[in-house]
Amino acid sequence: MDQSLLDTMRVVALPTKTNFRGINIREVALFQGEYGWVEFSPFLEYDYKECAPWLMCAIEAATKPRPRLYRNSVKVNGTIPALNNSADIERIVNSFPGLETFKVKVGDNLPEDIVRLAKVRTLRPKAKLRIDVNGNWSVQDAITNLRAIYENIGPLEYVEQPCGTVEELRELKEKLIVNIPIAGDEVLRKAADPFAVNLEGAIDVLMLKVQPLGGIARAHALAAHHKLPVVISSALESAVGINYGITLAASFPEMNLDCGLGTGSLLAANVAELPIVDGQIEISDVEPDFTGLDVAPDRFEWWKNRVMKTAELL
User: Which entry of 75, 105, 119, 173 is annotated as an active-site residue?
Assistant: First the structure.
């Protein structure tokens, strides 16, 4: 990694509105390169090897021109965390006017999941619903739970990562009686070599996240290799990282699924605003506002060390 890029690093701490996958503060590192501000924000528990594609993405974004774009805005879904308070769910749904799709986090408690989905369905009866399990179910649990959700809630657009492994997803697909498409996320981005994973007969939709997969060029290569319909999603990035995800989504000639890039609404503070207008987010030249967001010096040093150690692996 070029020293001049490292010298521009700023690290910010972005509070979340609710606990989201155990996160109350989202720390991200930002750099200013030839092509604007870029982001490096692997989750804190990731080791240097898992951080490597995230840094590849940041370097690509800083040093390479943007790809050809087929649109300047992208349709997004709303994200509903695993909340059980009816008022909280209503507040979040109502914060997304004009959205046609909601992704609801599920997987810990089936009765609570069904109540959460029913609340969203009541508030937006015409919206498409998709659920995200983060690989938490066994095959048998997935069969039981998806049937119960289908019977209580109705059709889902898809279920994201119901089980952890490719083998489990393939078995689930063979045994699942109800018609719910399966999307794969962790099964690709957590793989040692995402090109070597055989997804045939395991999933119907490929989830692409620009940072964990190593950037726009590599995400396109993976999409071409696996030959599945794709949807672009976020890894709870700041506006800088989201903007690059929108750029990835806009670089596909066709994008028939609403993208999971509306997660800025989960943050209580951000370095910039990317408003959702008529269910879409527009690509913009993000100029971060760091006011009140910089981390303490010890956290800055932690991130600087993390970047340098990760760069040694590239």
Answer: 105
103, 119, 173, 209: the catalytic one is 209
Check if the beta carbon of residue 279 is closer than 8 Å to that of residue 74. no
Angle, CA 244 vertex, CA 241 and CA 246 arms, to 5°: 110
Q: How confident is the model over 151-160, as pLDDT tens digits? A: 999 999 999 9
The percent of residues above 90 in pLDDT, for the chain, comes to 95
Spatial CA neighbour of 303 closest among 19, 11, 7, 37: 11
Q: Is there a catalytic annotation at residue 209?
A: yes
Distance between CA atoms of residues 238 and 282, nearest Å = 15
Angle, CA 12 vertex, CA 307 and CA 311 arms, to 5°: 10
Distance, first Cα to last Cα, the chain: 8
pTM check: above 0.90:
yes
Question: Based on the number of CB atoms within 10 Å of its own CB, is 22 exposed (0-12), middle (13-18) or buried (19 or more)?
Answer: exposed
